[in-house]
Hints:
Elements: H1 2-19, E1 31-38, E2 44-46, E3 51-57, H2 63-68, E4 70-77, E5 85-88, E6 91-98, E7 104-116, E8 119-126, E9 145-152
Antiparallel strand pairs: 1-9, 2-3, 3-8, 4-5, 4-9, 6-7, 7-8
Amino acid sequence: MKKYIFISLLCAATWCFTACKQEVPWEQKHVRTLDLNVYTADWMFDTVAKQFYYSFDVPEIDAGVYNFGNWTICREFNGGSKYAYQVALPTSMFMTDTLVDGTVAYYTQYIDYRVGVGYVDVQLTNSDYYYEVDGKGNIVNPESMLFRLQLIY
């Protein structure tokens, strides 16, 4: 009999703790999604590493978030449309470029990132360091891109 009373009390206590638990609204759960835009003109080229990069100031990544939080960064395609989709970084895309003489160059575009306290750096590297060059011999910047940073802390 004592056994059944104990089990009944344990079940009742469990029910009270789960029934009284209130759901925390999504916006109070320590999550943030930040849109990080880099425009074509803003890409920088590192002549030593032979890659494009852009540095975002992200004050939301303080020492606490850096040491104890988690993050993901995705590139968003077709942003703002019903066909929008995200691809997690790092990502590789297989690319082609038709040259002036009509031949096709095949290369891989690799996009990666690094995170530090207060910033996010995005790097774009083409395989074999193949970059489009304009008529004046200058390397052409990549297209504008939208990255989405999701922070959980």
